[in-house]
Sequence to fold (287 residues):
Amino acid sequence: MTDAAPAAAPAPAREAAPGRALPRWVWTVPPVVVLGVLFLYPLALVVRESLAPGAYGDVLGSPAFRDALVTTVWLAPAATAGCLVLGFVLALIIAFVPFPGGKAVAKFIDVFLSFPSFLITLALLFIYGTVGMANGVWTGLTGAAGGPFHFLTTPWGVLLAEITYFTPFVMRPLLAAFAQLDTGQLEAASSLGARPARIVRQVILPEALPALAAGGSLVLVLCLNEFGIVLFTGAKGVTTLPMLVYSKAILESDYPAACVVAVVNIALSVGLYALYRGVSRRAGAHR
Fold:
């Protein structure tokens, strides 16, 4: 009796052929299309409108443009400097000086960042406006017909409003940097007899420089393009580049001139951003 033939070994299961992977560049198409439709195409329209014959010569040679450019160039850095100084001091107090409600104040900074700029300006108008609280108290105490506080309609009022509104944009990265600071360095410096001013200058400030640079660059660009604060203060003698765009486009219906000013404003913003990136890259390479 012959043995039964051995059972045939089962055929190996065929592996499913993997799907053909899409090229990497395919995944970049949707964001590029969205960016092009929402940003690049309108920007191209603005640039094309600004190329009307004689538009750049008429606008760049006008006294209104030169005044707006000078006002913007000094107002934005001045507000940024004020925000850096005030934000650094307030962040130091919140982070290193124990006081009741310190955590609530730190959380309020996050809420403050969501406020619109005109809301802060209206609050300052209620306090220092022509019929505001400060002038009302002055009138009640002295019996005078009007109070002495009329600076909100001047460049100094715009500067105060911008510093008030944009200071938390400096404080937020500073508080994050202070939270990561090694407290052992502060204790060691204090045990060696260093005074608070020296600790701030030699220990805290070097660690805070990246956060100061990030917050200051953000505030500088925001101040450069701020429109609501200048509009709501009613400072008629203060015309910045965004206000000039508004007046040319809405009040005068001169769209080529408005586009020329807008292109100049965009060039300043992009130039400042490129400068910040270059400086931060070099600073990172030297560290």
